Amino acid sequence: MDVDVFVAAHQAQWARLEQLLGRGRRLTGAEADELVALYQRTSTHLSLIQSSAPDPILIGRLTQLVARARATVTGARRAGWRDAARFFTAGFPAAVYRSRRWWIPTAVLSVAVGVLIGWWIATHPEVRAALAAPADLKKMTRPGGEYETYYSSHPAASFAAQVWTNNAQAAAMCLVLGAFLGLPVLWILFLNMANLGAGIGLMAAAGRLDVFLGLILPHGLLELTAVFIAAGTGLRLGWTVIDPGPRTRRTALAEQGRAALGMALGLAVVLFVSGLIEGFVTPSGLPTWARITIGVAAEAAFLTYVYVLGGRASRAGEVGDVEAADQTATLPTAA
Q1: Who is most buried in 22, 25, 312, 314, counting CB within 10 A?
Q2: Taking each helix axis from N to C terminus, what angle separates 100-123 and 183-205, rounded to the nearest 10 degrees?
Q3: DSSP 3-state assignment of 26?
Q4: Is 163 buried (19+), middle (13-18) or exposed (0-12) by CB count in 10 A?
């Protein structure tokens, strides 16, 4: 191919395409059709140059021109309020609802482990002695001790922000590390339950379990539910590595991974609400029954949100993945 002859033959078309692109959206119907036709021709010209007569300068020019034309023809899709509303009314609750067979058993088993650890510590003095010196244990569990003052040790706003950040990081780790066959998720869950069980056991041994539950339940119900959902989703992602089903492993991981990233965003909002309760309600002067009622109400509202909105969206075909238009195109495969 003679590059000079090729350029001379098509220079007018490229210049016209540049002229139309420079006018932005101020195009008539006929001009818009012309722009599309010129974009297609220029794409073909670029392909011919790349395969027959590679000229770096000409290829760079046409590549830039084709990219600008493609952006104008196809348009850049901008996320807006409609996308956010769809995510929180359909995508996120549907993803949580569809993964309930993973996070509900995770929650039941985790709570059982936490309670078992608490019983073991409460009924075995030698275990408590191994955890800390008697004076230190008394300092933690006595009236006005560390377990009680922990929630009021910092200003409510900064404490809520700190709690939210820590919990969001834990949830994100469960989601991300799930790809490693779910093993790190199990370890994170065990550490959380061991910490909870230690509090239960130590306060129960001191005869103050009611005080501990009064402090942990207002925010703990919603907080632990979010952690269990993250852990269940992470375990589901890990299982997808082992058994992707009828899909290719790459396709299955891409679908589950996108849903997990969306889940991380949704759970960050849930944990933000939990952090507000922990920062402002748990250390407040409200009666214990009032604080627990607030926690139970928040948990009930979230579960209703998941089972009503999420169930409805799931039955309508929502899976929590991004919209089909935003997914990478895939080739059909034989069944």
Answers
A1: 314
A2: 40
A3: coil
A4: buried
User: Does residue 145 carry a pLDDT above 80?
Assistant: yes
177 pLDDT exceeds 90?
no
pLDDT bin (cut points 50, 70, 90) of residue 332 is: very low
DSSP per-residue letters across 50-108: HHHS--HHHHHHHHHHHHHHHHHHH------HHHHHHIIIIIHHHHHHHTHHHHHHHHH
What phi and psi, each to the nearest 5 degrees, are found at residue 113?
Answer: -65, -45
Cα 247 to chain centroid distance, Å, stands at 23
Q: Is the pTM of this model over 0.85?
A: no
**Is 164 a residue whose pLDDT tops 80?**
no
Residue among 168, 82, 96, 79 nearest 320 (CA)? 96
DSSP line for 196-246: HHHHHHHHHHTT-HHHHHHHHHHHHHHHHHHHHHHHHHHHHHHHHHH--TT
DSSP class per residue in 248-306: -HHHHHHHHHHHHHHHHHHHHHHHHHHHHIIIIITTSSS-HHHHHHHHHHHHHHHHHII
Q: How far apart are CA 294 and CA 219, in angstroms?
A: 9
DSSP state of 335: -
